[in-house]
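Entry 14. Ran structure prediction on the chain below.
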Amino acid sequence: MTDTVVQRGPLWGHTPASQRRRRDILVAGKKVFFEHGYALASIDRIAEAAGTTKRTVYDHFGSKDALFAEVIAFASEQFVALLPSADALPTPLAEGMRLFVGQLKEWVTRPDSVRFQRLVIAEAERHPLFGQVLYETAVLGAEQVLADYLRARIGDGQAPEQDADRSARLILDLTINGARVRALMAVEGEGADEAAIELALGMVMGGAGQV
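Output, structure tokens:
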């Protein structure tokens, strides 16, 4: 997670035991925040779900805000880990891009993913840090996987020289954001259709994010 996260509690990650306890609290926090929303998710409920005490939660995370920010990062890292890695994607450029875009679309539009995004967005106006953490861990995390894949394809000559990070952002903006917005707004319809994917492929082959 980035350095923008609020200050953590004094026991945060100092020993293997504290790291295990931290993860238990994050798992419990994710469940409680998801079930009750931010406002009704009390530290008491989270401590009970984690099998620990309210004091221990505060000792690890410092505050409810800090805990929720860490839960967002934790959930986002789990999300990115579900995506195929750059090395696991097929080497042929068109095949690899189609697979990645399709899998990312599937995960960002799943009901539990949409619900979690809505939860963060609902609190982001009052707590901008929450939106920032989601963006920096989930959105940029997915972009980084695609950028790493594009760098490999530039390296093996399948794509022309270009700024892989910029190209990855352009591709995902073109192919995924429509599906994400429709899902967030509960609007029926398809995103990341074949025409958008073909356009994205054409952009990459033309060196969309020129250095």
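The longest helix spans residues 128-155. Will compare against last week's run tomorrow.
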